[in-house]
Specification:
By secondary structure, the chain is of the alpha+beta class. The protein has three domains: about 80 residues, no CATH class; about 90 residues, no CATH class; about 325 residues, Transposase Inhibitor Protein From Tn5, Chain A, domain 1. Strand 17 and strand 18 form a beta hairpin.
């Protein structure tokens, strides 16, 4: 230990020479070999190598900025200067090394803020390799693929720094970081000094998130659009603490299954036999946010001044109508969760152009046969009945599911991460209860999962549609739930800490973009079946117990050559948006 008040001239060089002399002796003592030269590394961010230069060490170049991690090398982005100390003048002839000009160490500050190699400072989420069924060597090439992928969106940004920040954020979302919000991503990849710049990129920069989304949809349409496609509508909630985030309010939170402080987004997805993806998103703003009481909050969270209140149903319809009118995506199905499925106006509007597969609540009332409509019998007192009513009462769909005579059949919905995913399904024709009167006749589709949970859905497809098509529609409806699960489990969809309205949409746009990238990787590498249980293709396996029952029409047992029999093209939606229910 050298105390602070000790002063020795050229102390650093002196100690280095003493250590070198001792090292030469120890080396020969232990290995009986004479050292030819010594090597050391200097980090130019903190040191200039003055001691080594004074002791006669020679600068011979710099490293590439990698560190070894297991069997691979990871880029950390901080090259070190390399210095050598020759111990014998003839060491080159001994080791067969030819002398080259020594490059002088750079005196300029190290600036690598837009070097794509910085992305190697974080690894990929371990679950990605398993989900994509690719080996570690292919995983090591994903960063280069991501760089090429982002370049296709360069025209959507105004500055090169924005393109690079998008690249950094995308890698961060798919990385092995535990927290995938702006600050952890920026610190790990770019350093603490770049946190504010990354925050500005998400919340205040000038790039157009909708333009990025439109470009992504163009690319996706070429890859996955198909006549067998389904547009999917769903909402997803994000629990939040405090009151400072745009749209946050006490409202039903699907994640928690109760009313809680959260944000809610409305999402549009798409699924076909070629793949599935999220296409659009919009943050739901509760009506109270448009009152004078919330004016200051709207300003702080950058809510657009021209934004007006819309119900979730109106938002969903608007997104669906816009996408359909673009003509980029083909399809003849629309799938929706029970929040949208319970809205009869929405279903009726969609049903004019599409077949829908709409989840419903277990207490939805139906009749198994169309009831007789008549005046109720006079009870002997009071006024005579004047309004006709059904003579039989409807029953909740949950009661129908308990009927022991239902002809359930066990089907394989596709390959999951742990093997085949099976479920029991059954369908029957029912008449919907609407405002006390019988409404349209639909297919009621029941799906009992392995855990015993039963899902209920209405489908307006024709009476003669094969059972396999309804099973397939059920699986496609689930694709958007699969995307939410992937987004929240390993792509940072719910990790964001931005509070502004534009920031929420930009974060979701970049989540969509990394999903788009991984979809392309899946398609190229093959691996496990891309569609798994989310799409249920190829054709379903292990279909058993196929027998018609008293509630079930006879249907053909084999899939037709075409996936959808006799269904014409359904390319447009009605102009008027339905009201929320």
């Amino acid at each position: 230990m050298i105390l602070p008040w000790v002063r020795v001239k050229n102390l650093g060089s002196y100690l280095l020479s003493q250590v070198t002399r001792q090292l030469i002796q120890d080396w020969f003592c232990y290995y009986e070999q004479q050292l030819l030269l010594l090597e050391t590394f200097v980090d130019p961010r903190f040191f200039q190598g003055t001691v080594y230069k004074a002791a006669g060490w020679v600068h011979v170049g710099s490293t590439l900025g990698f560190t070894r991690q297991g069997s691979f090398y990871r880029y950390h982005g901080y090259p070190k200067e390399v210095y050598l100390c020759p111990l014998r003048a003839d060491f080159r002839s001994i080791i067969g090394c030819q002398q080259r000009p020594y490059p002088k160490p750079s005196t300029a500050p190290v600036e690598r803020s837009t070097d794509p190699m910085l992305l190697e400072r974080v690894g990929w989420d371990p679950s990605i390799a398993a989900r994509l069924s690719i080996d570690p060597e292919d995983v090591s090439k994903l960063t280069q693929r991501l760089v090429r992928f982002v370049q296709k969106f360069a025209s959507c940004f105004q500055k090169k720094e924005q393109i690079f920040n998008a690249l950094v954020y995308l890698k961060g979302l798919a990385s092995d970081l535990n927290a995938k919000s702006v600050e952890p991503i920026a610190i790990k990849i770019l350093g603490e000094e770049k946190v504010r710049a990354m925050q500005h990129f998400i919340t205040g920069s000038t790039w157009d998130a909708d333009k990025v989304l439109d470009k992504s949809k163009e690319e996706l349409a070429e890859d996955i659009s198909g006549d067998d496609g389904m547009f999917t509508l769903d909402s997803s909630e994000f629990p939040k603490k405090g009151k400072d985030s745009a749209g946050v309010e006490r409202q039903y939170c699907g994640n928690l299954g109760k009313v809680e402080n959260c944000q809610s987004g409305v999402f549009l997805g798409y699924a076909s036999s070629k793949g599935y993806a999220l296409l659009n998103r919009k943050l739901y703003m509760p009506e109270i946010w448009f009152t004078d009481e919330y004016a200051e909050r709207r300003e702080k969270t950058q809510v657009p001044e021209d934004l007006t209140f819309q119900t979730k149903v109106q938002i969903a319809w608007e997104m669906l109508e816009k996408t359909v009118k673009s003509g980029a995506f083909a399809g003849r199905w629309v799938g929706m969760d029970s929040y949208f499925g319970k809205n009869t106006a929405l279903r009726d509007a969609i049903g004019e152009k599409y077949y829908y597969f709409a989840d419903i609540h277990s207490n939805t009332l139906v009749w198994l046969e169309r009831p007789e409509i008549s005046l109720s019998p006079y009870k002997g007192r009071g006024p005579y009945p004047k309004k006709k009513r059904p003579l039989t009462d409807p029953v909740p769909v949950s009661k129908i599911a308990k009927d022991p005579t239902l002809p359930w059949e066990t089907v394989s919905m596709g390959e999951g991460a742990k093997g085949p995913i099976t479920a029991e399904v059954v369908r029957l024709r029912v008449i919907e209860h609407r405002d006390g009167m019988p409404g349209p006749e639909y297919w009621l589709f029941l799906r009992k999962n392995a855990n015993g949970e039963i899902k209920y859905a209405f489908c307006n497809a024709p009476e003669d549609i094969p059972m396999e098509e309804l099973i397939r529609a059920s699986s496609m409806r689930w694709s958007i739930e699969q995307l939410f699960q992937e987004g929240k489990s390993y792509l940072g969809m719910d990790h964001y800490e931005v509070r502004s309205y534009p920031g929420w949409h930009r974060h979701m746009t970049l989540v969509f973009l990394i999903m788009h990238f991984l979809l392309g990787v899946r398609r190229e590498f093959g691996g496990k079946k891309l569609y798994n249980a989310a799409i249920g293709l190829p054709a379903f396996n292990s279909i058993s117990n196929r027998r018609p029952g008293k509630h079930q029409k006879n249907d053909q047992d084999c899939l037709d050559q075409h996936l959808f029999l006799g269904i014409g093209s359904r390319q447009s939606c009605c102009a008027a948006a339905p009201a929320d229910g």
